[in-house]
Amino acid sequence: MSIPSSRLMRLNFARMKTFFQIVLSSMIALLPAVAAAAPFAYSVNSDQPFGDTLYMIDLADGTATPIGTGVTLPPDPFKRLDIEGLAIAPDLTLWGVDEDLKRLFAIDTNSGTVVAATDEEVDGVDGAEGNDFGLTFTCNGDLYAVSVRNQTLYTLGLDGVASPVGGVGNLGANISAIAAHGSDPVKMYGLGNGWFGEAGPVDNRSLYEINLDTGTANLIGSLGPVETVANYTEAGLGFDLDGNLWAITDRSQFAMTSQVLQIDPATGLATNVLNTSIIGFESLAVAPPGACNVPVQPDHRFETTVQVPTLSRTGIILAVLFMLLAASLAPRLRRR
Known about the structure:
The protein is of the alpha+beta class. The chain folds into two domains: 5-33 and 311-335; 40-302, Tachylectin-2, Chain A. It contains two helices and 19 strands. Helix 1 runs antiparallel to helix 2. The protein is globular.
């Protein structure tokens, strides 16, 4: 008894459908897990020998991409050798402060060089080394700086004039990175230095909340054990537009790359720790001020990104084999 051709076609189609469903399921199984959403951020590898270049860092995996060949003031070829603080203003301008030269300036994020018209000497802070500056902007455009040398929070005009908040020494802790978030009230956080200088001993690996009226720091909590967050000296700190607090730590004294941390502002505990691809980062600018009464309108650079899942090299090879197998079997299925 012969089977009608129409029925054969239906049977063959069913076989092909089942086969390709199996192939598709196998390929999906080869996909790696989707990485957590994370933004990009700016930093300068100021503690890498012959570094001192602006980088864009993918906080999802630590990959660092250079912008230009060094933070210079053209046509002067000499790099700014110790940029320890970075912050993004409400108008999306990236600002930096150099510990070595005691200068404040905007950085062109296309070329990675100093914007000449903005270059100002910082006046009103201790002129000696060891300030380990941190920077942050608030929603209304106020710029703050912090100094480890005299444990002081400053307001810092774009003309470079610094004024202590509350009084010199009011912080009472060695804080080298700060980050502001929100308005009415503004919340400011500070991250303690990991070590006393490059030779140690261990300093204070903790997160603080800073009072903007008195300039005092209140301990929130430790970043966690050294097995999770490695020893470091200085650090950078910044919020993304979703209100997540990020940090980057400098481990160049151990000849190791920096670590990227996500920190819980309520407890100080660091999670999602990963290593960068470059050594010597001690500054971090993630986004312009967030949670403002009048929202800052960022461009695409500061939006959170999600890594698209892709096949690994092995997965690609297997996928090609699957497709070749499907191509070879399809004619046979049609002939049956």
